Amino acid sequence: MQEAVGSNPTSPSFAAGKCREFTRLEQGARPIPSNRGYMKRQALLWTVILFSIVIPVLECLAIGGGDTEVYIDAKYKTGFTVAPNPEYTQAAQRQGEHGQGIYRLTIDPKDGSVAEVKILIHAGRNLDASAVFTFLKWKTKPGTWRQQDVSVDFHMTRFLRQTR
């Protein structure tokens, strides 16, 4: 003789109103799943966000904006109508890069813009990148000359600023 479904305490039966969940009669309803994994991911995310904000602030306190100097002699800028100085990047400051770089600018005679920059003497990877990027913005009168060597001095006046 067959037993009716649900009459045996160890046989599974469907809970009322829920077609996919089932429980054993003696155990009661299934426990609500924990969201510990979600909470761990949220905590990790907020930790990363916090450190991505705090670390740059601490770096600004360690090395101030007035602690660096970029010098290009005026004789290199004569004849150029647009000649901004390169920036001393934060990456170069963090890595302590400083020194002198010499760059050869190849000028397009048609429009007077800098077409190519060759690094003759390296000042540092980040400083060279800043100088090349800036030299490509330089402009002169068309047909003035084809090449110009430019010397740039990058100096850090203080390596660490005193914090109060």
Shape: elongated
Helix percent reads 25-40%
Sequence of strands across the biggest β-sheet: 3-8-5-6
In this structure, how is the largest beta sheet organized? 4 strands, antiparallel
Strand content: 25-35%
Give the CATH level 1 class of the domain at 66-156: Alpha Beta
- Report the CATH topology name of the domain at 66-156: TolA/TonB C-terminal domain
Instruction: Tell me how many strands there are.
Output: 8
The CATH superfamily of the domain at 66-156 bears the name TonB
Could you give the order of the helices and strands? Answer: EEHEHEHEEHEE
On the 0 to 100 scale, the average pLDDT is 76
**Rg from alpha-carbon coordinates:** 34 Å
CATH architecture designation of the domain at 66-156: 2-Layer Sandwich
Number of helices: 4
Give the low-pLDDT segments.
160-164
Describe this structure in words.
The protein has 164 residues and is of the alpha+beta class. It has a domain of 91 residues: TonB (TolA/TonB C-terminal domain), CATH 3.30.2420.10. It is 29% helix and 26% strand. It has 4 helices and 8 strands, in the order ββαβαβαββαββ. The strands form 3 sheets. Strands 3-8-5-6 form a 4-stranded antiparallel β-sheet, covered by helices on one side. The protein is elongated and about 75 Å long. The protein starts with 11 loop residues before the first strand and ends in an 8-residue tail after the last strand.
Offer a quick outline of the entry:
By secondary structure, the protein is of the alpha+beta class. The protein is built from four helices and eight strands. Strand 5 (99-107) and strand 6 form a beta hairpin.
